[in-house]
Amino acid sequence: MPTQNCFRHQAYSADPPIGAYEMLNAPIDPPADSKEFTRRIREVAQRLADHHVDEIVIVHGTFFGDDALGLFTELERYAPTFGRKVRTANKFLKDSIVGYRNNFTLEYADRLKRLLRTAGHPHIRVRRWHWSSGNHHVARADGAVRLLNELLDMPAEANAGTLLWGHSHAGNVFALITNLLCSPPDVVEQFFAAAEPFYRGALGHRADLPYWEHLRRRLADGVERPRLLVANFGTPVRYGWDIAGCERLVHFVYHVPNPELPEYRVAFPPTWDDLAAAAAGDVVQQGGIAGSDSPPNRLRVRTRRAHQQLGRLLEANLDDSYLERLKTGMRVAEDGLTLLLNYEHYEKRFLCSQFGHAVYTHPVWMLFHAEETARRLCP
After folding, report:
1. Distance CA 261, CA 287 (A)
2. DSSP count for the chain of H helices, then E strands
3. What is the pLDDT of residues 126-171, one digit of tens each?
């Protein structure tokens, strides 16, 4: 995508990809007590430190957040403190049930932080960040607004950078952030106007989700852009990126080449083995493209209207059908570098692979993911 992408959606084509990509095999991490592991994690920490990365923000994908159905967000309109507490409790319960399958756990973040500290760089902070995780435009837009407000609130340290590390549609939350930071003021205003039914009451009443109006004013007044580096894991090809909004961008995608297709494409429809044993890689990354949203239920009238209006803005340049998009079989994003990875040592049973989408959050590839992220984003 160009600079000033203006929320343009990525197009879908079976032609050779515009974006750069590489094919790799993903090795399992060596034992944590081995010399090789120690050497490699020190190299990761040193790269991050040399590139002035002082924080890593780890973000889950769709359905694994604190309010996938949007019910607690509605509660938050009227009882903000209680609503946030309920969301926190809901996420804690979900973590205790699903663990690391398709989900970045607290233990995952703590282990990465501990490894970087042991490697001699205790100043690199690691934290999880949660969004509602609903499967629609409003949920991702709300996540982008919440996270961008936090990033702008962080104390400005000279040349300090933040690494955004996101699973699944968290990457599309990040893509919206780059557009919010870099689009012309009138285009940013179109985004807020489209979402207005969600965060502002009827008849022009004050915003009942005030952080939206807060960011709207901040961006209108002008802000200093944060230094962002972005690593996405299994992110479906959706929203376009504004390349001026992040310093570097890399996408990790589980992909097993099909000998009957170009190496960068995936077949459609998927076979039973593709679904049950991830024989072709990540089926969710393949299917979670434009047209796969689950709109807010009809009782959430304001949110549903905002979803429709945001769809007209964010997908204005798309005129093909969901089926036609799936047939293109494109895994490579137009911006950044896509690593098409064969996790050949992964347990292929459905409950473990979950259509191939759970591989990225498994702790046995934490070092590999950290190593490739640091190498690609901090050269």
Report:
1. 18
2. 14, 7
3. 999 999 999 999 999 999 999 999 999 987 677 889 999 999 999 9
3-state secondary structure (DSSP) of residue 227: strand
Residue appearing with tokens 């137009």: 334
Can you tell me the distance from the alpha carbon of 361 to that of 103, in angstroms, rounded to the nearest whole number?
A: 6
- pTM greater than 0.85 (yes/no): yes
Contact assessment for residue 147 and residue 40, using Cβ atoms and an 8 Å cutoff: no
Candidates 239, 342, 181; CA nearest to 9 is: 239
* Rounded CA separation 148/154 (Å): 10
Residue pair 88/45 in contact (Cβ under 8 Å)? The answer is: no
Work out the number of other CB atoms within 10 angstroms of the CB of residue 272. 8
3-state secondary structure string, 97-153? HHCCCCCCCHHHHHHHHHHHHHCCCCCCEEEEECCCCCCCHHHHHHHHHHHHHHHHH
Question: Are 293 and 140 in contact, with CB atoms under 8 Å apart?
Answer: no
Distance CA 244, CA 303 (A): 30
Binned at pLDDT 50, 70 and 90, residue 206 comes out as low
Q: Tokens 């929203």 belong to which residue?
A: 239
Instruction: Count the Cβ atoms, other than its own, within 10 Å of residue 106.
Output: 13
Cis peptide bond upstream of 16, omega within 30: no
Give 201's pLDDT tier (boundaries 50, 70, 90).
confident
The DSSP symbol for 328 reads H
Token pair of 373 as six digits? 């992220």
95-116 average pLDDT score: 91
Q: Dig out the tokens for 231 from the structure.
A: 């690593």
Cα end-to-end distance, the chain, whole Å: 22
